[in-house]
Amino acid sequence: MTAVTGRRAAIVGVSLSDCGRVDEATPYALHAQAARRALADAGLDRSLVDGFASAGLGTLAPVEVAEYLGLRPTWVDSTSVGGSTWEVMAAHAADAIAAGRARAVLLVYGSTARADIRAGRRTGTLSFGARGPLQFEVPYGHTLIAKYAMAARRHMHQYGTTIEQLAEVAVQARANASANPEAMFRDPITVDEVLSGPVIADPFSKLHCCIRSDGGAAVLLAAEDLVRDCRTAPVWVLGAGEHVSHTTMSEWADFTVSPAAVSGRLAFERAGVRPQEVDFAEIYDAFTYMTLVTLEDLGFCGKGDGGAFVEKGRLLVRGGELPVNTDGGGLSAQHPGMRGLFLLVEAVRQLRGEAGDRQVRVNGHELPQLGVTSGTGGWFCSSGTLVLGR
């Protein structure tokens, strides 16, 4: 292939597999279902896909998944950094397209996390292992949820953030989900209902935590010379940033600052836009605190102001100043594991005006022009942020 530098990359196809309660499918089947649907969405033939990215499945990811899909890519990526994996992979894919190393790159994910637990094929994940640096934390029962809870408590102590403000994140996510027919939970909830639920890890009650679902997603990126052959309007990758922070809590300099503070700054700088110009945000929300602190670190409000920012319906699709997690997010729509790819699917649907009753409208009637997705991995261990535009 002759090197072609500087080509723009666009997302031209997106799709979800069946999501929510999927008891009969395998993870491979969900990968395939999402991939077929994304290719059909773009209107491109599978033979044009020369790049492939996947993580989380198979002994030799993504080789096994590519084989299952009948693909023989000449560019691959298996970067695995938790929930931020897909934003990081999308950035890598855009770079590969710009450098002329690929023309069409497929990102795909699928998981039967919920069905596996129900069938006894696995248990709930209490820790990520006990080797390496983690050996100094695991013996004390320091689970993933506990780490997020500790960080939330620090923010509450340092900035006066209240549990009611954190609960508002869950309430507004559910309100957005109510307009999403693909969301797993759509019934409205109140702040009191969030607070009165069983405590999972102080200060988080059940509704402060993401749901567990089955499901998959796929995103197809293409070089600009392929865009004219697509059936969909392109959504351009305008800027991207990635950052890794820590794995052990003792090496995390400040529990109130996430790695999105770096990835977000880089993404906005490279896109040449400011946070205030963005019309909506899709933010990884395994826990309510993630949404709040990521909003701060992306620059939508000042450090310590996240609690006040999320009040008064500011995150709602209908009437919110900055609609956030417009599909309901991991708190209400679906969360089958590494959810970062779902953020990209929803962002593209919003920018293309395909979000139905949950469609963001700027000034009451205009389609959004700019959106941001920000994925988080581990316990704020990594972050990937993308700025997307029409």
UniProtKB/TrEMBL annotation:
InterPro entries: Thiolase, Thiolase-like, Thiolase_C_2. CDD domains: SCP-x_thiolase. It holds the Pfam family Thiolase_C_1. SUPFAM superfamilies: Thiolase-like (SSF53901). Residues 241-390 form the Thiolase C-terminal domain. This is Acetyl-CoA acetyltransferase.
